[in-house]
Please model this.
Amino acid sequence: MSEKEHKPLSPEWWRSAVIYQIYPLSFKDTTGNGQGDLKGIIDKLDYLNGTEQSLGVDAIWINPIHPSPKKDHGYDVIDYYDIDLELGDLETFDLLVSEADKRGIKIIMDYVLNHTSSQNPWFLESRSSRDNPKANWYLWRDPKPDGSAPNNWLSVFGGPAWTFDENRGQYYMHSFLSDQPDLDWRNPEVLDEMKNVLRFWLNRGVGGFRADAIEHLFKDRDFRDEPLNPNYNPETDNPYDALIHIYSRNQRIEILEIIKEIDEVLGNEKLNFMVSETWLCAEDLLEYHQASEKKVCMPMNLNTLGLPWRVDKFKDFIDKYDSLLNKDHWPNYIFSNHDVSRIVDRIGESKAKSAAMLQLTLRGTPFIYYGAELGMGGVRIPPESIQDPWEKQVPGLGIDRDVARTPMQWNDDKYAGFSNADPWLPVCDNYPEINVKKELEDPNSILNLYRSLIALRHQSSALTEGDYLPLESGNENVLAYIRESETEKKLIMINFSDDEAEVSFEFTCAGIILSTNSNRNSNAESNLKKIVLEGNEGCIFELQ
Ligand code: NOJ
Model:
C-alpha cells in the first residue's frame, strides 16, 4: 500500500481524536486458535467507526503485533519490520490501514524501543562474541571480581536486572524479563535503526506511535549501585521497591534528547504523533511536553490510574496539570489500560459511568481501553491459567495484569463471540449480560453513554479544544468545571459519591445536554441555583 492511497490527514488531528486501545490477543479471533488477530480487528472496524451504531473513535492504538516469542505478550520483539504470524502478515496490516482509513480511523503502533526479545537476531549477534558488529547494541558488563552481577540493579518484573551469558562471559542488563535485553541507546547505530523502524511504519500509513517504557531508555554511565529504599517493607512491598531507582531509569536529559530526534522523524507537517509511556507526576510530564519542539511528541498521563475516586484528588491533579501546560502542550487522560485492573473493578459500575463522562469532557485526548465502554470487569483468573509473566515472577502482590486482558465480550454466544475455541484467557462469567450486542439494544447501557459522549465531544468545540476552567462546587463530593471555546460554554458536574449532592451556581443555563442518569428530565433542570445530583451522577449543561 503506498502512502498516496491514504486520505490526507489534517494536522494535529489527534487533539480532537478519541483513541481506543486494542489488546490484539483479546479482541477477535478469526483463526480459531483462541487468540485475537488482525483480521479480527478488521472484521470489527464497523463497531469502532463508520456506521450509525459505531462507537465513533478516531484512532486505535494496538499493543505490539510484531513477531515475538510472547514472553511478555509482544513486548519482546524479534523483528520490528514484520507482523507476528499468529496475528497476520504485512498484507493484512496494509488492509487494516486502508479499511480503517475508509472509516476515519488511524492506526497507532506500539513502539517497543527500550528492549528487544532475547531471540531477536540483533541480540543473537550481540551475544555471539565480544567483537561482532552488534557487540555494543546492548548493555554488556563484566562480572565483579567475585563473579557476581556488575551492580545491585533490579528488574521491574522481579529479580536482578542482570543475566550472565556464558558465551561472552559477561552480564547483560534487562529492565524487565531476562528475555527482554535492553538496547544501548547511546550507540548511534541503535538510534538510526530505531528511527528506521518509525519510518517503515509511517510509510505504511500509520498515524502515530505509543513509545513503550521510555523512562528506562538510558542508564547511569558509571552503572552505580542504587540506594536502598529506607521505607521498603519486604513482607508487603514489591521487591522492585527495595531500591530507589535513580540510576537505572529516568535519565531525563538524554531521554528528552531522543524525543527531539523522534520529532525530526515525525516531520514538520504534524500529521503523526507519538505518545510515550511515562509514569510521572504533572511537573515531570511538563518537561516531556516541552522537549518536543514540534509539539508532536507527548507523554502519557497515567496519573489518574492510581488516584482514589475522590474529588479532592482528581481536582488537585487536573487543575495542576492543566495550569502547567500552555496552549501548545496537548494533554491526554487515561483511565485504564492493559497494565492495571479495569476501572469497574477499581470503582464499581455506576462510578465507571461518571468516570466516562469525566474522561470525555476533559481537555486532552481520551484513551479508552477496549471493554471499558461495556463496563467489562469482574474476572477471576485461576492460578493455573495465569499468563502474565510479571505475576508469575512476583506472585501474590495483586499485580495480575491478566484480569484486564480477557476476551472482548461481543455477544452471549459461547466464548462471548470472541472465538469458537477455548480462549487464551478465560472469558468473564458476566458476558451474557455485559456484551456489545445486548448493550447496543439498551438505551441506558454504559456503551450507549460512551457513544453519546463521544458524539457530543466531536460536535463540540468547547469539549474538544476549549479551555478548562476549574470551579469550586461548594460540595466536597462534586467536581465541577467549565469547558469554553469562542462559541460555546459547557458546565460539567460529576458527583463522586453514592449519595445525592446539592450544588448551586450563578450561571445562566441554556439546558442540560447529557446526564449519566437516564431518568433525569432534560427540560426541568435549567435553574442552576439549585441542582440536586443523584448518587454518582454526572451532568453536562449548556451555558449562555
Ligand atoms: C510497559 C507495557 O505497557 C507493559 O505491558 C510491558 O510489560 C512493559 N512495558 C515492558 O515492555
